[in-house]
């Protein structure tokens, strides 16, 4: 029987609750498949800074490096300039997870716009999140780094993904203003796309894309864009599809994948059993696909859709009253 070692970081706030739910669903899914998941739990997040002096202790880094993939819960990121860099950003850099993949799909009964089924692929290693900020007299400057190499890599990922979907990519930029940086990005996408004549390619300014996502989200298949634009557009698209409680994400590199919900640690809901675990469950589903266990992934996806349709998985954010545990139980019961 195949087995995969998975690093699990429960994180802060609602993290342990939603990760626990996703693990229960994964347990049910692996019983139906012919593989085993071997979990290695690691401490990380703002909750461990006092104990270790860092949000990503060396022991956890060892666990991450010994695993095939990581299932990560949301973590609180302190905003003081002296605080450690976000754990997600550290892991992305550590494994060069260059593509951030965020599917936005409307599920039955979940309040999203019918027919929405798109994926936002965001360049994950540079752009305005380069981490290069410095003070200048009277203010501060952030460097927006866009390289041909990283743009081509993420474009290739998006094109291959589109090939397996509705065969359309929209590259989102602001090259009319950010002429140099988004000029590099746009030219890189168009050059890589020449090898994929089966995929329809269109360009769109980021402000127009923000508007079109609300006006006519059904027009999109795969959106590819730079780091900050993708971060913002994917939260918007998640809301159009039903809310951040349903939105998973994958961070993919050449030899590692990290899977997490799009949402944060929602501290006000921590420990109350009201958080929606579906985003994390769908992130675990993306991990199954990444591991090559697509059949088990499909089982999870179908169980989520049916549990939402039947009403038993509707948590407070979706207008229902299912607790975190009951929602996960409804999904597990349908696998
Ligand atoms: P958030 O996503 O934690 O919460 C925003 C709002 O969304 C919450 O008030 C809640 O109403 C709702 N929400 C989020 N997740 C939900 C869920 N599973 N079920 C039901 N409702 C849910 O965003 P925030 O308040 O901006 O950030 C809180 C903390 O999380 C910050 O420290 C931030 O840095 C961190 N954060 C971490 C990640 C990550 O670990 N990848 C991502 C985003 C934010």
Describe the structure in brief.
This protein has 335 residues and is of the alpha/beta class. The protein is 39% helix and 20% strand.
Give an account of the 3D structure:
The protein is α/β, with parallel strands linked by helices. The chain has 2 domains: 1-96 and 244-335, Isopropylmalate Dehydrogenase (3-Layer(aba) Sandwich), CATH 3.40.718.10; 113-241, 3-Layer(aba) Sandwich (Isopropylmalate Dehydrogenase), CATH 3.40.718. Helices cover 39% and strands 20% of the residues. The protein contains 11 helices and 12 strands. It has helices at residues 15-32, 49-52, 58-65, 87-94, 148-163, 179-193, 206-215, 227-240, 278-290, 294-309, 324-332, and strands at residues 2-9, 35-41, 69-72, 99-105, 117-123, 133-136, 139-142, 168-173, 200-205, 222-225, 248-252, 257-261. The strands form 2 sheets. Strands 2-1-3-12-11-4-5-10-8-9 form a 10-stranded mixed beta sheet, sandwiched between helices. It has a two-stranded antiparallel ribbon with strand order 6-7. Helix 1 links the parallel strand 1 (2-9) and strand 2 (35-41). The longest helix is centred in the N-terminal third of the chain and has 18 residues, at 15-32. It is globular, with a radius of gyration of 19 Å. The mean pLDDT is 96. The protein binds nicotinamide-adenine-dinucleotide. Nicotinamide-adenine-dinucleotide is lined by residues 14, 18, 74-77, 88, 244-245, 260, 263-266, 268, 275-276, 279, 317.
